[in-house]
């Protein structure tokens, strides 16, 4: 992939872009191999490669410049405002979408926030596109409600210019700290969810719910987990109960569960849980229950283990206490999806009762040192 911004040293976000993509993949696989060597995985599978460009369906753009001449991008290490509206990581539909965002900023007179002066209102533009439908969700992150009336006034113009815009919202982040978003979200459109579909499984994304940056790779990740679970059941007999901790909008659990099985999906975000339950209902899964609870607290309170435990924790990993409860509960099978192999290794150390059977790298973040890992573990006999 060629990027004019990287070549000019204006943006180094893709810090491995100077390496040929096959070499990036080899390096990631070697790093993972070295990191997990002590756990002696029975199978270290070939990595799943990414497209080299046009794969990011989520954009997080800092609002810079002025209301008259907005810039959407980053502030680089040299302190320069770099417009990334033409970034080749995004699919083709993003460039005209960013152009409409800039026109709207001008029209609604949204002054970009100046961190040093602590003036201005618009902090970020957050944009997501559904791989399935091509439709968009747009979020304006504001310092206060001062511009809310102007956004509401001019929104009909934006919707008329941009028929693919499905969901639009304002997020309030009043703190001067470098936080991407705040707790309060104000939905401005009739539609409140962006519909996605991966591997024939419907998923509904709320403005504040977590979802993978690259849906093509997410589909491969979910399908692989489903295939591993199906293979186990062919060999060992069907699972009666499955847990999906840190379930988000239900991606893993809804791929793994069958109509005859019980599934408990646990996620702290209530709106994500509502989305997951909606998907389960559409799939006709009557024995599935999604609950808005803390995953570690749910495990601590549990007295009986599921047959299969699926976990997809944030970058910090499971942590010592949750690992202790997994050890105590002793589910026979564990599928662990990790976005941080370092904390994965720490958690595996804290799970000595488990053997690492399968490991597979999914290159969710091409041109960087980051990647996703899917693992299958079994409790020692």
Automatic annotation (TrEMBL):
GO biological process annotation, one example: rRNA base methylation
Question: What GO molecular function terms would the record report?
Answer: 4 iron, 4 sulfur cluster binding; metal ion binding; rRNA (uridine-C5-)-methyltransferase activity
Give the matching CDD domains. Answer: AdoMet_MTases
What UniProt keywords apply to this chain's record, in alphabetical order?
A: 4Fe-4S, Iron, Iron-sulfur, Metal-binding, Methyltransferase, rRNA processing, S-adenosyl-L-methionine, Transferase
Catalytic residues? 339, 339 (nucleophile)
Tree of life domain:
Bacteria
InterPro entries recorded: 23SrRNA_MeTrfase_RlmC, MeTrfase_TrmA_AS, SAM-dependent_MTases_sf, U5_MeTrfase_fam
Q: Kindly list any coiled-coil regions of this protein.
A: none
Which positions does UniProt annotate for S-adenosyl-L-methionine binding? 212, 246, 267, 312
Q: Name one Pfam family in it.
A: tRNA_U5-meth_tr
**Record family assignment:** Belongs to the class I-like SAM-binding methyltransferase superfamily. RNA M5U methyltransferase family.
Q: What is this protein called?
A: 23S rRNA (uracil(747)-C(5))-methyltransferase RlmC
Q: Which organism is it from?
A: Rheinheimera pacifica
